[in-house]
Amino acid sequence: MLAPDAERCTEGGSKGGGSAFRDVRKHFHDYGMELFCANEPMDYGKFRTELGLLFKALPCRGDKEALIGLWEGGEYSRLDRATVEAMAVMTDSPELVDRLEECEKTVVHGA
After folding, report:
1. Other CB atoms within 10 Å distance of the CB of residue 110
2. What's the pLDDT band for 19 if we cut at 50, 70, 90?
């Protein structure tokens, strides 16, 4: 969804975007908004980024064993630090960052 000012720009409004903005606009997808319940599993495959893995972990909040099970599943071993830190905060599981650091040490030291 484009911001209200973006619509005004496409009409050559006060911001002066005009046709140049229309040319750039064709390169962006206008994603719809989808609400979901963090406590219920959903189709996480529709996410093309690590956001899907973050959302997949949310129903496991409060269940440390389930979170560890996700982590050991393999797809979580490739997450970047920012995603792991967000997941740790959103699931109240700071030990996820510790697990990431252990993995990083293994990669760096080749152990």
Report:
1. 6
2. low
Of 92, 94, 14, nearest in space to 58 by CA? 92
Rounded Cα distance between 74 and 31, Å, is 29
Q: Which two tokens stand for residue 58?
A: 């949310």
Burial class of residue 48 (count of CB atoms within 10 Å of its CB; 0-12, 13-18, 19+):
exposed
Q: Is the dihedral of CA 101, 107, 108, 110 positive or negative?
A: positive
Residue 72 burial by CB count (10 A; 0-12/13-18/19+): exposed, middle or buried?
Answer: exposed
Amino acid at 47: F
Higher pLDDT, 99 or 109: 99
- CA 101 to CA 111: how far, in whole Å? 13
